Amino acid sequence: MPPDERRGPLKETQLNPGVADPAEFRSVSFKGGNEPGVLNLTTQVTTPAGRTYCVSATWNDARALNDPQFLALYGGVLRLLR
Hints:
Elements (H helix, E strand, L loop, with lengths): L26 E9 L2 E9 L5 E9 L6 H14 L2
Antiparallel strand pairs: 1-2, 2-3
């Protein structure tokens, strides 16, 4: 495949939209993971206008993480991309 030809997202990454609302985007791909003290979220969205963005955030801390706070901040970034 020529290097300038774009490939689409993996279908496996489109099963769970994560924090993104699929109704607000043309397409959503998500991969996340966690373990004690680590949380990672990575989302690729395509807007209704056809722009594609990728957002990734990781939080590392020896103390307990505030998951709801992290998810709210991440969701706020995604909403700005609509």
